[in-house]
């Protein structure tokens, strides 16, 4: 009887028996509710084409930077893990899987191991712990499961109980996969695009002129002028709204906002196209455009989500060899209070405007995000994100924000994952941890048990539906 | 039998039964001790005139930014809550109360709900939970209690067990209410003014010339010159000391300190009066004046309290419509180590000088405040303040500072509240949480139970008396 | 029966009985393992000469800034505590000890008291709590123990079970004590020097020219030129390696790194020797030299440890009177992500390069250090340091880093102490706290008990051996 085979029913619930009993009841009432995933990175093509997955490594390892970055830290070359577009053949995929198995101890105590064990046992029936010895047998077992008809993406959506899933999409995307899904009456879940315009809002990029030229093509607007550029963005946002989008997502180095005079914005835009804008000017225009995004949101209704504070591509040699998203985005400090003042001064109380704030810098939870969400009707405290979407950090998040804003000014859980099969494990983890937190408040007599039950349910239904206008 | 009616006797004590038993004993030994409130915002006029309260809304809701800011976040216009001077008639007051009742779920899990339920049950006998259905009956019940003779401010001081209460006062205030209270032998508690000179130390304010002119009038000093300005401040501090003040309170955007040459200070002061000082000069003079306050403190003995790190009036449209203190002061980062070096270099070891450091940025608890208070005889770690005076944050505070400075270099609890009726609930919460923290140390065998008892008592007696020279 | 006499066997283990049982088993399996201390400040001369200790104060109080800084905060003059070179006679040593005893309550709840009680009971058999009444008797008792042959440094090394001990040494030190120890077959433990070049890397120091002149002398290189200066450093590092060093230690105001052109480095170096380098230039050269240290590490194999974020000598009058290390180094914010980019871009994946990151600013644990250690094979998350090497902070550290990097990208415990007798108490504390943390993960079903046992052992064996190449 292998120990990994046992996914303990009380995992992540509090150790104290009295509190655990309360948490158990709370969790029982929410564990089976449908999954709402309003922000993530599942390719819509998978669902539109119901593409079969090919092998364990390309399904579970190569796309998951949580996993491959730690293997890199252990000395495994990224190329051997299929990162950055390098296609692995069968032998390569097996070798990559062996690397993971050999270094499985590295992940002890981490959510990565917790999620993957949840998947291995719950989805794939791999009941032996990963190790050098079990590398081939576990690979075989997963490969066998993957090959089944019932392991196609659409079947998994159903099996995982995902009722709402947002993808992340380029503004120039034609959203044909989303259109196909919407037109398909046999497909039940709601799959929505998300407008992600970052690179089109960075006038300092060397490819900015090409990017906005392309934006002009797909929108039919003349992006040679600033006014046309703004119209093109408005056009594409509307296109996304028409294809079911409910939010736009933004991630820049900071969240400083400012408003330029129209003429100044226009002047910098023209200079940026000519490649003559200074870095300061480009940054100013980007900050101005973030306010423009808020302005457009008040018109087209898209919820705005901000994900700042990641220093992208920290290790230049790895970027050169493997491209972006190869595991070396590292968090930095962020500042919201001063940075967002211009944006919130203009739209913070505007009808229908909604702004969800995420962070990799947990110092702002209690200091900035919760206080902002406790005054501005538009602001919601986004769930713990990325490096922080893990048991200890989620506990710190609830501890940090609840004092100031309770539960109803938060966004609900966001998985933001590229690892499709981890979605149920991640949402389940969140439900367990929220049950544990609520149970502690009940045990402390800060909350009545019936209120805790209502909150637990709301956190996976009403709360994300409100924050994301579902 | 309504559930809110039950204020559980063990609320906020730890869930683990063994630790809870220790905490219960600790709490039992301090729950009845008199309340020392060395910093807060109760209007002295209430006590001097023993003014009856008029209605539930103006007593409990309109002055309490903790409450009305969350209602604003829920979409309720501030004007409908009586914020910013707008007087509400009886119908308006009832409507405001209804807003609170309708949105009562927003506050689940927050200290605001905890305090108000404590008040509703313990003071007003409102035993049904607030809701749209109970809005009128709860309003009526509170209004009835308020109307009683035994609900006048002085009776409440007695009932609440408040032995020491500091108010916060303008340097030009004549302190007549304090004088009246001091002269009244029938009034037992000690009510002290606090010297709060912020705006008189901000040469960059557009009304600076008017402010110091007024300072000149009340002090009899000629504030046309810098030397006269300094004498005027010294004069008013002495006036406060003569009227019982024990501390001065300071809140600016940062706590950077520096010393200007007398001639340079004088030059900037004159320029500020003429409206020609640059922003840099004004800031420099303000930073210099904070050191001057410390210098004066070494002469007149006032304890200096610093409350930095709030970005005041974040939302300009709300400021325009409702004035300051309308719920949108938002915390920012602060820095103490470098900022206070000049002040502490000059007065950090000066006889009798005492400096209590508060913060809205909890990152400085372990990094800066505790280390400073663990070396400088003058420095005390101020209690968790404002957004941080809540169960989770208070736990983090004790966790952050105790490793470095134990309990005797802290200030004791500060309620800093405008909500008079919440004072006992707030101090009771603090006593419960300190009992819980101490019980954990006892259960861990880090502290002997007898020592924990001594500390629990000291934290509400000797510790604030020492920090505030009572 | 005195209460202090009881060092409770379960101290620091969790209060919940179920979790405590798990923690007890974990602790039992590691409590007796040898101590590896890869970074600290024990004078090698003590061991080489096996010098007898003279008195309780000079052994336990005067060298321990954790203790004397709190006594200073309580108003005791440093001169009366033997700080800063002031030799105390017998009467003075007794008076200093009395100060400690009189203020013993100040330390309630702090690790300083915990460690010292551990030493008093466990090493000295002082079974009465310290107090004014027991000051003389406890002093006498300790003095008696100290006088014994079995209390010589070498005997203590053996008694404490220290198998590896690193000292901290000046690059110009001849390491004769280390050589003597290495040559002495009767001495079992491994005692290693650590290369600590800080002051030789600060071109802005007024004594920089003298320092590098001395470096030239001992290395036989001509440090009049930048090239010679670099060779001299390489030479001394090799000398340290030959004498058993495994690491170099670095502590500057920040960890910003950059690479200067050779010619520019040379130009600034020459200017610095002439005293004409600007502060910006000096800082640039220091930041460049930190990268040079990394470059040399890839050649000579020394592990690089970074200890930034302390504002040294905060109180100028105390510095003037008592010299450095007199208790007023105060933490400041640090930044690693951007700062280390140049260094890690060049050497982050270099063969054999290892970099251990420490901090006094705990906000970087989850935000920067763990994410860096989870990608770069070279980076290890250093243990909680100095103000943070205490029960609450150690708990926060494990909570902050484990989600991202588990246990095997950390450094293991570092005592970094000048208080020789506290070494076993500190390591024992760390083992108890790690057992408590692991037990919590087991109780939560995040970790299997057998895995927790393996981790607990690894944390005091394989983990520090890996991080420090032992």
Task: Based on the model shown, name its key terms.
uronate isomerase, domain 2, chain A, 4-stranded parallel beta sheet, 470 residues, Uronate_isomerase (chains A, B, C), 20 helices, alpha/beta, 6% strand
The CATH superfamily of the domain at 54-151 in chain A bears the name: uronate isomerase, domain 2, chain A
Secondary-structure element sequence of chain A?
Answer: HEHHHHHHHEHEHHEHHEEHEHEHEHHHH
Q: What fold name goes in the CATH topology slot of the domain at 54-151 in chain A? A: uronate isomerase, domain 2, chain A
Return Rg of chain A in Å: 23 Å
CATH class of the domain at 54-151 in chain A, anyone? Mainly Alpha
Whole-number average pLDDT of chain A?
A: 96
* CATH architecture annotation name of the domain at 54-151 in chain A: Orthogonal Bundle
Pathway (chains A, B, C): Carbohydrate metabolism; pentose and glucuronate interconversion
EC number (chains A, B, C): 5.3.1.12
Catalytic activity (chains A, B, C): aldehydo-D-galacturonate = keto-D-tagaturonate; D-glucuronate = D-fructuronate
Protein name (chains A, B, C): Uronate isomerase
How would you characterize this protein structure?
The structure is a homotrimer of 470-residue chains. In chain A, helix 9 links the parallel strand 2 (162-166) and strand 3 (190-192). The longest helix of chain A has 22 residues, at 279-300. Chain A has 20 helices and nine strands. In chain A, strands 4-5-8-9 form a four-stranded parallel β-sheet, with helices on one face. Chain A is 49% helix and 6% strand. Chain A has a domain at 54-151: uronate isomerase, domain 2, chain A. Chain A has 470 residues and is an alpha/beta fold. The relative contact order of chain A is 0.14. Chain A has helices spanning 17-30, 44-49, 56-61, 65-73, 90-102, 111-122, 135-147, 153-160, 176-183, 208-219, 226-242, 262-274, 279-300, 316-322, 341-347, 363-373, 391-405, 423-443, 449-459, 462-467, and strands at residues 35-37, 162-166, 190-192, 247-250, 303-306, 310-311, 330-331, 355-357, 379-381. At the A-B interface, helix 15, helix 16, helix 17, helix 18 and helix 19 of A face helix 4, helix 6, helix 14, strand 7 and helix 17 of B.
